[in-house]
Specification:
Blueprint lengths: L1 H18 L12 H7 L13 H8 L14 H13 L4 H4 L16 H6 L5 H5 L38
Helix pairs in contact: 3-4
Bound molecules: heme C (HEC) (2 copies).
One heme C (HEC) binds next to helix 7.
InterPro entries: Dihaem_cytochrome-c (IPR018588), Multihaem_cyt_sf (IPR036280)
Protein name: Cytochrome C
Organism: Thiobacter aerophilum
Length: about 160
């Protein structure tokens, strides 16, 4: 049994490596308005972490954005959508990002995201400095630069992930 789990782990890792070449560095050359419009309330999320169809759904409802109004003028909206779609990840690698019908998609709910974070404990997710998985920078110190390397993770209680 153990051996099977081990090998299926290897298969999963190599599959995701094909579509998301290096998931430790997800910086994308976005237009300047990307940081300004999409990086003020939370980090400007890496486009690679959601599929094109999901980005389109987010961009179609900016006025009702997870309880906030994140609307921008139509020209900016179009430019941002083009950028996100062009750099989107593949749906088959990531898995669907939606939990309920009509709910906006969440990149923190894809099978890919959950797998990458399966070693994070419930206590760490609930920590007052984290509160929501969308708060990437609570653990990934350089998330805003698109950097997610293991060496750059500090858990909310201050321990460095690589020292675990
Ligand atoms: C006015 C503040 C605000 C702005 C501006 C904003 N967002 Fe958000 N966004 C939020 C909030 C609040 C959430 C929900 C966070 C949570 O549930 O933890 C969210 C969640 C998201 C999520 C889902 C994250 C998850 O949980 O997986 C995506 C994707 C997203 N935003 C993309 C964008 C994009 C793209 C832009 C720019 C067009 C943008 N946001 C601009 C406030 C904002
Ligand atoms: C509670 C802390 C925490 C939060 C919040 C968090 N992560 Fe992580 N993340 C981790 C840990 C721990 C790992 C696993 C590192 C390892 O062992 O490789 C990880 C792994 C990753 C990886 C894989 C890195 C690699 O080596 O391939 C990516 C990409 C990533 N996270 C992105 C995000 C994004 C984007 C967000 C926000 C939407 C986020 N994370 C939120 C703790 C967190």
């Amino acid at each position: 049994m153990k051996t099977t789990a081990f090998w299926s782990g290897i298969v999963l890792i190599s599959l995701s490596a094909v579509a998301l070449a290096d998931t430790r560095n997800l910086s994308a050359d976005g237009p300047p308005i990307f940081q300004a419009e999409c990086g003020s309330c939370h980090i400007a999320f890496p486009p690679q972490l959601m599929a094109a169809e999901d980005w389109k759904r987010v961009m179609a409802k900016l006025d009702k954005h997870y309880g906030e109004d994140a609307s921008v003028d139509e020209r900016s909206r179009h430019e941002l959508e083009q950028f996100l779609v062009r750099n989107a990840g593949s749906a088959s690698t990531l898995g669907v990002a939606t939990t309920q019908a009509n709910a906006l998609p969440r990149l923190t709910r894809t099978a890919w995201f959950l797998r990458k974070h399966r070693q994070v404990s419930p206590a760490d997710w609930r920590h007052p400095k984290v509160r929501t998985p969308a708060n990437c920078a609570a653990c990934h110190r350089r998330a805003a630069e698109g950097r997610f390397h293991e060496r750059e993770i500090t858990m909310p209680d201050g321990r460095r992930w690589e020292d675990r």
